[in-house]
Amino acid sequence: MADRFTEGECYFTVNYLDSILSVPYVRTLVFVRRSAFGPEGAAGKHWFFKDVDSYVSAREELFAFDASSLHAVMRVGGLLRELRGYATRCEARKKNAAAGKEALLPKKRTLDP
Predict the structure, then answer these.
(1) In 1-113, which ranges are E strands?
(2) Dihedral angle, C-alpha 87, 89, 91, 94, nearest 10 °
(3) Which of 28, 39, 86 is nearest to 62 (CA)?
(4) pLDDT of 5-55, one tens digit each?
(5) Torsion angle defined by CA atoms of residues 8, 63, 20 and 91, in that order, rounded to the nearest 10 degrees
């Protein structure tokens, strides 16, 4: 699993901004290298990625993943599976709302200008 990354290829992470998984945040990462040491000399193998902004601008801003967190980094197929799951949850929330179970829907928030 850990040797599945190819330098220069795009990978993705998906995080959710709320506890009911209704607001996904997708980050595109470009694989840079693998190292026997992590940030600031942390022991153990680490895999280093850049986000698209730092990759395009050639800034040295790296995201490090150790073996225990590497499962969160996925190829396009994994991203599509995750987003299909998200779509399924959205449809279930809509059906629940239509059935009068609004409590399962996230509260709408507005941002102050």
Answers:
(1) 10-16, 24-37, 43-51, 63-66
(2) -140
(3) 39
(4) 999 999 999 999 988 888 999 999 999 988 866 566 666 788 999 999 888
(5) -10
Residues 6+ apart with CB under 8 A from 77: none
Looking up tokens 């840079």, which residue turns up?
32
End-to-end CA distance of the chain: 45
Q: Which domains does the chain have, with CATH numbers?
A: 2-101 (2.30.30)
Which of 63, 40, 39 minimizes the C-alpha distance to 51?
Answer: 63
